[in-house]
């Protein structure tokens, strides 16, 4: 008897939540409907790293989470953005380099050492001399690392053990030993080359939430056997990447192939660390525009997917844990951050989050699902609410440091958990409005993204919006 009652009440409660969430979601959608616009020029290719694959310089390091330089160029030119811009989630610096090549000064903030290193190395190109290029060409020609006698051991983490075939590991350690004999400029480029090829010479493939392991590694992962296909030979991969970089460095057609801008370049300034810590110290009204893409609320763990690169950069287990916890909450392992300890003035943005009824209902629903044991990970409710609280604080800082009329432009994806779509676009836009922004437009990408295969199996296929939000600072508070 009791069991029947239980079976009857649980679905009813869930249905109530689902109904309430659908109603609130629809209300918020209708409120922003005049701002939504499907923009065919913002293809998935342009908004993702894909369009960088053929762009000199941008193609060196495949940062899957990056957007393309062409997107930034068109956003800057089509919205008449000039002056100084900021990207608080700089990644490998797409916004910074694209803006700088159009003559704008650009500041960036990036937490992960991999993005920091790529930006630093790209900036150091300015100091390269023609004899340095000759040294690099000679490395390709003679495969200099093969002649090395000194070997430098590769730093490993628990999650990177057995990542390379033995002959590849041997090649890496000889290469690391040999590059130390070169001048600082050349050894920086050689190190960058190695960073750029790690995935292709390893048994791993980056897969959003974690690294997938090829069966040849001997590491077991689940029950399915994963074959990543061709694993590049070390000498071949290094030579290829070095050739590509040398060719870009030697080319006259430097950064941009779309827009011919011949004026002076802007200056780039990168701060290493968390934007939650960095933004509060920036002065009011300092930036003309902010163009950014934060981590999505999608459980992607950059510290795991970029573990090979972070290990090569010398990070130890503790550093990895610290980085994971400092990221904007986007993994189920993120603990709640004490935002008021970081900045006592964040009471308002925190309260604004609580005022969004839809968000409150979603959080309640996820917590109820957690209590019932219906979630595939109990960290999901904490991640989702942490994401919005932290993003609200970031948005309020961005508002403060923007000049009046300045644009904040953000690329972000909607997500889905436990069968419930979370419209990140309308929720963040509602918060942005409370902070003082005017929502000018929310551009929707033409092809909508499906769900993860797991979600599709359980809940059917409903497309999730991927959008570019255009917010403008209108009122000084
Ligand atoms: C979607 S990616 C941005 C990629 C960038 N648009 C590009 O083209 O390279 C988000 C970035 O935010 C960074 N990030 C995450 N939490 C951060 C934080 N608290 N402060 C600064 N950067 C953070 C991640 O390391 C990641 O590089």
What labels describe this entry?
single chain; 477 residues; alpha/beta; Rossmann fold; 2 domains; eight-stranded mixed sheet; two-stranded antiparallel sheet; globular
Question: Can you give a write-up of this model?
Answer:
The strands form 3 sheets. Strands 1-11-12-8-7-2-3-6 form an 8-stranded mixed sheet, with helices on both faces. A two-stranded antiparallel sheet has the order 4-5. Strands 9-10 form a two-stranded antiparallel sheet. Helix 15 crosses helix 17 (380-401). The chain has 19 helices and 12 strands. The chain is an alpha/beta fold. The chain is globular. It has helices at 2-32, 44-47, 69-78, 94-101, 113-124, 130-142, 166-179, 184-197, 234-250, 275-278, 302-305, 307-312, 317-326, 339-342, 347-355, 357-371, 380-401, 424-435, 453-459; strands at residues 36-38, 84-87, 105-110, 204-207, 210-213, 268-272, 287-292, 402-413, 415-417, 420-422, 437-444, 466-473. The model is unreliable at 1-12 and 451-457 (pLDDT under 50). It folds into 2 domains: 2-113 and 267-302 and 328-450 and 462-473, Rossmann fold; 126-250, no CATH class. 42% of the residues are buried. The site of S-adenosylmethionine has 23 residues, from strand 3 and helix 10. S-adenosylmethionine (SAM) binds next to strand 3 and helix 10.
């Amino acid at each position: 008897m009791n069991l029947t009652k239980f079976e009857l009440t649980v679905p009813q409660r869930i249905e109530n939540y689902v109904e309430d969430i659908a109603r609130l979601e629809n209300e918020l959608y209708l409120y922003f409907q005049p701002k939504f616009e499907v923009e065919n020029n913002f293809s998935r290719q342009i908004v993702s790293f894909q369009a960088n694959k053929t762009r000199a310089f941008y193609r060196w390091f495949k940062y899957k989470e990056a957007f393309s330089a062409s997107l930034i160029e068109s956003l800057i030119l089509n919205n008449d953005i000039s002056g100084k811009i900021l990207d608080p989630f700089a990644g490998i610096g797409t916004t910074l380099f694209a803006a700088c090549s159009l003559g704008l000064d650009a500041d960036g903030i990036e937490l992960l050492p991999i993005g920091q290193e790529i930006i630093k190395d790209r900036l150091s190109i300015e100091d390269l001399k023609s004899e340095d290029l000759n040294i690099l060409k000679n490395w390709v020609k003679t495969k200099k690392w093969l002649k090395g006698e000194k070997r430098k051991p590769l730093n490993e983490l628990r999650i990177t053990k057995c990542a390379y075939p033995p002959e590849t590991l041997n090649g890496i350690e000889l290469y690391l030993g040999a590059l130390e004999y070169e001048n600082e400029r050349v050894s920086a480029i050689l190190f960058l080359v190695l960073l750029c090829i790690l995935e292709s010479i390893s048994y791993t493939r980056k897969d959003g939430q974690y690294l997938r392991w090829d069966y040849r590694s001997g590491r077991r992962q689940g029950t399915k056997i994963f074959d990543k296909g061709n694993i590049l030979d070390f000498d071949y991969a290094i030579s290829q990447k070095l050739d590509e970089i040398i060719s870009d460095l030697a080319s006259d057609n430097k950064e941009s192939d779309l827009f011919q801008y011949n004026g002076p370049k802007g200056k780039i300034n990168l701060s290493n660390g968390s934007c939650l810590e960095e933004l509060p110290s920036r002065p009011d009204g300092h930036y003309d525009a902010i163009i950014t893409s934060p981590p999505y609320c999608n459980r992607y763990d950059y510290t795991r997917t970029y573990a090979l690169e972070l290990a090569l950069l010398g990070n130890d287990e503790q550093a990895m844990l610290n980085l994971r916890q400092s990221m904007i909450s986007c993994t189920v392992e993120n603990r709640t951050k004490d935002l008021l300890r970081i900045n006592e003035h964040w009471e308002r943005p925190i309260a604004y989050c609580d005022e969004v009824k839809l968000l409150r209902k979603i959080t309640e629903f996820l917590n109820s699902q957690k209590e019932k044991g219906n979630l595939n990970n109990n960290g999901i409710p904490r991640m989702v609410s942490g994401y919005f609280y932290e993003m609200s604080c970031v948005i309020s800082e961005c508002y403060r440091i923007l000049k009046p009329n300045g644009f904040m432009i953000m690329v972000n994806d909607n997500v889905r958990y436990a069968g419930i779509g979370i419209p990140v676009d309308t929720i963040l836009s509602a918060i942005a409005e409370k902070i003082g922004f005017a929502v000018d437009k929310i551009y929707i990408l033409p092809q909508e993204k499906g769900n993860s295969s797991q979600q599709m199996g359980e809940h059917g296929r409903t497309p999730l919006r991927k959008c570019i939000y255009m917010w403008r600072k209108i009122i000084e508070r």
